[in-house]
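Sequence in, structure out.
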Amino acid sequence: MITRLNKPETQRWGYRQKGAALAVSLLILMVMTVLGISAMSTTTLQERMANNHRQNQLAFQSAEAALRTAEAWLVANVTGVTALRANFNNAAPVAGLYSERSPVIVDPTRPLPAGVNLFDDTGWLAAGNAVAVNTVNTATLTQSPRYIIQYVGRVGPPPKDYSGKKPDKREYGFRITAIGWGEGANPTSRYLLQSNFRIPLL
């Protein structure tokens, strides 16, 4: 006589699923690893974006400071036609000051040096081409911001005076261009700003 022992249902299922916990654990570990790598990549990308934004802001603020410095220089130093002729002339050139138009008819113009490209750092960094602003906090900046000023002539159409006796009350116009850089020995961030400035001179 053969006696057959029936195992409980729970024992039979436990026997069949032996080792399944290991496979499930490995699958969960793999999913968590992929999620962790994805989160790290996202964090790294966000850090780079934040640093790029900071560098752009530093370059912008530097260029803005140079622009305001140039405007203040014009107000303080170009107070009349005599001062305009003394600073914007070709006979005794002043660094960073140029004239696309003659201050008066007898004066020659002083255009930008040949080959100078305002979108290339080489022209800005060459000695005598631009004015460096050293008042900006350069504790973290390796390049001081710079500016150039160009006299572009009288503003507006000439007065309709056929007798030549009426005074010409047009203002004198200037174009200011400033550049600022971000941090680092070879900064990759730069900002270029321009403003048009006009002054009434006697």
